[in-house]
Amino acid sequence: MKNKLTKIYGVLGNPIGHSLSPVMHNAAFNAAGVNALYAAFETSDLKGSIDGMRALGICGMSVTIPFKTSVIPYLDELDSLAERIGAVNTIVNKSGRLKGYNTDGLGAMKALEAKIDLAGKRCVLVGAGGAARGIGFMAREKGMALVVANRSVDRGLALAAFLKCRFIPLERIRETKIDVLIQTTPVGMFPHENASPVPDDMLQEDMTVMDAIYNPLETRLLKNARAKGCTTISGLEMFIHQGAEQFRLWTDLDPDVDLMRTVVKNALEE
Ligand code: NAP
């Protein structure tokens, strides 16, 4: 039952209507017996929202597009990983002090590590946006040999310089050896499910292919990869693992990850 002790959490973004974070975190709070409520906050006033978080004692916040970088100046403190990545997807409010964290890359690595060993693997990161930055940073920390493949050269080169790795233009992706392909562009996302950012015929059965997209659950890229015999990982796995890390930061408890997966999957299939 919700009462005066109920702790409030939420997600800040714009747009936010399709976010599956509320369904995931509310289920996890209920299952763990935590008296908390998680809401979606769509805003175009970031500073006002963070001031409001402090003023109202909102205990924690997920941060999503387009605020992951712009929120940083409004926080009191950054976790060292978020500082090195330069982006925040989680805020913890400890007695009025707001500390920023980044769990996106950790979530992606947990999803991969559930299927394969990472150290020494040749990993091609398709895309060079916010998701690629966090995932690439953690992939490098895990000892993967990275290559960034991106459509625009400027952005691709900038990310490759940040990650201290090689860049290739997306149209030349065939020229590089791949053990693990991580797809981080929006290409293939609902309602354009028939698109893929990489040619179907470059997939080979010894590859592992992870897509950051979780709607649809199986993108065209993943469908083709599965048909070729590749190991495939949906963006749903990355999403629930980044959420599980957020839950741990907020509550010091381990969430029921299977339940989180089930409720998000059900919501996506509705
Ligand atoms: P972003 O910062 O806007 O970056 C998008 C990237 O995709 C850029 O590198 C861009 O290339 C590339 N791109 C866009 N349209 C393209 C096209 N038609 N062909 C080739 N490349 C294209 O976005 P983001 O925040 O990184 O998010 C990317 C995706 O990751 C989204 O689908 C998001 O939902 C997903 N995501 C999933 C999770 C999860 O938990 N599963 C978490 C975060 C993000 P240019 O540089 O050439 O423009």
What's the helical proportion of residues? 25-40%
CATH superfamily placement of the largest domain? NAD(P)-binding Rossmann-like Domain
End-to-end Cα distance? 26 Å
β-strand percent reads 15-25%
Strand order of the largest sheet: 2-1-3-5-6-4
Low-confidence stretches: none
And the CATH topology of the largest domain? Rossmann fold
Helix-strand topology string: EHEHEEHEEHEHEHEEEHEHH
If classified by CATH, what would the architecture of the largest domain be?
3-Layer(aba) Sandwich
Which small compounds were modeled alongside the protein?
A: NADP nicotinamide-adenine-dinucleotide phosphate
- The Rg value, from CA coordinates, equals 19 Å
**Structural class of the secondary structure composition?**
alpha/beta
